[in-house]
Amino acid sequence: MKKINPKPEFLEKMKKLLSQADFEKYERIIQEPLLNSIRCNTLKISPEELKKRLEEKGWKISQPWKEHPEIMIVGNELQPGELGRSIEHLLGYYYIQELASMLSIIALAPKQNELILDLCASPGSKTTQMASQMKNTGTIIANDVNIKRIQILASNLERCGVTNTIITRDDGIRLCEKFKLQDLKFDKILLDAPCSGEGTMRSSPKTCLMWNQNTIKSLSKLQKKLFKNAFEILKPNGEIVYSTCTHAPEENEEVVDFALKEFKDKIKIEEIKLPVKCRPGLIEWTSDFAKYPPRSKFEKSERGRELGNKYNEKVKFCARIYPQDNNSEGFFVAKFRRVK
Amino acid sequence: MIHILSNQETREILSKLKEQFGIKEIPGKLIKIGKEKIYLFNGDFSEEQIENLEKITFIEKTGVYIGAIFLPTDEIRLSIEGTQIFKDQITKNIFEINNEQLENWMFGRELNIKTGLRGIIAIKHQDDFLGCGKASENKIGNFIPKSRRLRSKAV
Questions:
Q1: CA–CA gap between residue A225 and residue A219 (Å, rounded)
Q2: Are residues B73 and B55 in the same domain?
Q3: Engineering a disulfide at A40: which of A6, A70, A303, A321 sits with its beta carbon 3.0 to 4.6 angstroms away?
Q4: Are B102 and B142 members of one domain?
Q5: Quick one: closest CA in A to B105, which residue?
Q6: What is the pLDDT of residues A146-166, one digit of tens each?
Q7: How many domains does chain B divide into?
Q8: Which residue in chain B is spatially nearest to A83 when comparing CA positions?
Q9: CATH number of the domain within which B121 lies
Q10: Cα-flanking dihedrals φ and ψ of residue B17, to 5°?
Q11: Cross-strand pairs, B4
């Protein structure tokens, strides 16, 4: 496996997030290969049947979470790309998906016959997971802004036999505004937001090279706008899951804190139960942006949020997933309900 | 532009599917893109809601691609998903392949075998439906799309 070389500034930030012992574990685990995790596509085959077939190939299959038998680990050492080369994969019987990435849908808990918006849907791992739980009933609108990413999304939805989904291509914020004008409201929304991907270094080492604080700053701004617009098109009592695959508090707790301030008594943050070790959301974080002079009026006005910032106490109900706790990638999940 | 098939158009497709494969029921709405491609959508969204959605945003796809009209003969060529969705209804024009043929099929190669069948047929290996092929006297032509083919030996 290629050595992961995160930038020193990133490691400094992780040190601030973790205890010394945790940080050492984190540094060790990011150098290890990820588990080979797959999700049985129950639209096409049952977990029992898939497990039997894969075991007949000589694969050692375990199901780590009792309540989710569709989620499986292939215990064998596999060649690169081997999971994607099996007949079962080509026929859409399973989806190769990292364990942490399955958590947003476990939190969202989509039900049959619901109308759900997946605002930033590509490459489709979570859309297919949703469709599977909904047994291809209800309707999912799966949106993405980028045509190349949409092609991947469409190809994955096809391979998995997803028949309840409409794929749209639009800017997420604009699409929400259009839905608002049409008064189209959703039972549930998944906002798996574009993020800096700090949690994905094990599978995507190039993230280390691309990482920088300025990108985090602009992503945080985008994430807040996406959330604000998405929340407004939830039905009363509707639910929204906000998730990222990053550890950066600016992209996680700061967005959650913003949501709670923005929507006050209209929003309720929900406690979530996930089948992995989760740590509570941070209620305090001093951003490294404070070190740099503001570049614009907006940044200047935002500074109050950054300097020795204390978030709403309820931010603790969010779930932080660290690679060293579950031998997974890093992830963040928060769930909200529209109460008014 | 999305074209949701009318009841009459759906009946025509169903009649072809019945004649070719014995299929008696279509579990959802059929949507046609261009002259050939057929999609199956069984979401709750009504025709009117889909049309309203199309007025405000760009719809890339609706539902799953289940097959295409094979223009030279006007037969329907079901995709892998098409054969899987109708697997319990397909009773005619099925050809079962063996393990060796399976690998060749998934590589996208034509199979040089006599089937005794002619035209579009459903390909099956044990319990798996693998889309359709075009049977002629000595071979079965392969329609597996590139993205679904094996690129190296199967595992």
A1: 10
A2: yes
A3: A70
A4: yes
A5: A87
A6: 999 999 999 999 999 999 999
A7: 2
A8: B155
A9: 2.30.130.60
A10: -65, -35
A11: B31
